[in-house]
Amino acid sequence: MHEFKAEIAKPNPKSTINSYRSFGYNLSTAIADIIDNSISANANEISIHYKWEGQHSFISIRDNGDGMNKDELVLAMTPGSKDPEDERSEKDLGRFGMGLKTASFSQCKRLTCVSKRINFSTIKRCWDIDFINDEEEWQLLDYISDSSFLNEINEQKCGTLVLWEKLDRIVGKAESNNESVKNAFYQEMENVREHLGLVFHKFIESRRIRIFFQNEEIEPYNPFLLNLDPKPEMGLPEKFGDVEVTYFVLPHMSEIGKEDYDKTGGSLGWLQQQGFYVYRGDRLLVSGDWLGLEKKRDYAKLARISVNFSNSNDFNWNLDVKKSTAAPPIEIRRELSRIAKIAIMKSAKIYNWRGQKSISQISNSNFEPLWKDEITREGIKKYKINRKHPIINSLLADKNKLMSKALQLLEENVPVELILNNQNEDPSFHELEKHSETPSDDLLNLAVELYKIYIQQGIPESLAKQQIMSSTPFNLFPLINNYLK
User: For the chain, how big is the Rg over CA atoms in Å?
Assistant: First the structure.
């Protein structure tokens, strides 16, 4: 094609560098992208530090990785410095050679990188968007605003420090005494802490890295809650090429207590935390998403599925630049859907029945709930009191019309809206309700009284016990069976 050469069309520096600011990062995903580079550079300690000074606030991310010499640093600061199609080592969490620049520019207008490789001197380079806009040239600067950042790296054998200043996307032009922006800034940084504990939890748990946040070590947050008691049910890992999939079904919320309930629901709550957790080389990309294979439902709240693939599979998963979205390849979507259905089914069983107990004598009997749902001709779901329930059946035995009308009145006025409002406002009101292992005296006496009525009616003892112990709430307490005699 050489004979068709015309002009060299260089992208305009001002418009190009400003377009890099719109890749869709938030502060948490941007800092996670910088940490990816640290891990790829063999760092095992990463320190995040920030300081509020209004429009002069800053954020720094320092590691003890391999560091870079001058040529390597200039290359790293150059947009598109790596070919996405190049083969990468298993530890390399990068792909496009854009993360350092796009993540940084999405949050700040001045990016400074200080680095030191063993047997090399400490060097620095800076991109300043205001300077580029003025000069309209891709001009790197040998500049740093504060020499103390140089000293941080000088004191190490090797490593890199990334400094973000002019944080216009976070603090704008706020003065240091602006309490509203200050509080928002601190809250954003707390969100970063939580995000990093989740995204890199496998690295932290295995002690491959330690992340310090304002000098405090970040604790890992494992979304599969393996430290819970009782422990989640774990399916057998399945492999599809280099993709490993394992499902986890959490215990019911009422089994774990208020503190763990709040923590394990995350900032978005239990409903949003269900689904697939997609990892690339142990680094979490997508959390709590059914990837278009299922819908989020209340009864699926306990289902969480780990999917881990290697970086050699990036293009099959349509990985984006900021590493926050991924789509499964067609060839394994059916398998993922199958595993999802298994996990959801198990979740529904626990969520809907809360592990209700049965005893061997009645395990084959028909279960009689107190409430049943029906669909009207208009397609509307209504809730009805089960007339076959032994207590209700006994009340209606004498053809008491007032009792029948009272039941109808209850059915027509089920407070569905109130229940839904309470569930949406704070699901813990319902989900943390814990069933006692021992029946109350009132419930025990009611079961015994009902049993005596059955016997007086000539019902055989075994059938009387069966009918009582197969109905709500007696079925929750096998101990009641010992008193029916």
Answer: 31
CB 390 within 8 A of CB 418: no
In this structure, which amino acid lies at residue 98? M
- Residue 351's pLDDT is 78
Token pair 């008193």 is found at: 483
Query: Could you read off the pLDDT of 157-201 as tens digits, one per residue?
Result: 999 999 999 999 899 899 999 999 999 999 999 999 999 999 999
Question: Are residues 129 and 17 in contact, defined by beta-carbon separation less than 8 angstroms?
Answer: yes
The residue type of 220 is P
User: Which tokens sit at 52?
Assistant: 């509020």
CA distance linking residue 302 with residue 278, whole number of Å: 17
For residue 248 the two structure tokens come to: 């986890």
DSSP conformational letter for 253: G
Provide the whole-model pTM: 0.75
Burial group, residue 278, by CB count within 10 angstroms (0-12, 13-18, 19+): buried
**296 burial type by CB count under 10 A (0-12 exposed, 13-18 middle, 19+ buried):** middle
* 361 pLDDT above the threshold of 50: no
Tens digits of residue pLDDT in 194-212: 999 999 999 999 999 999 9
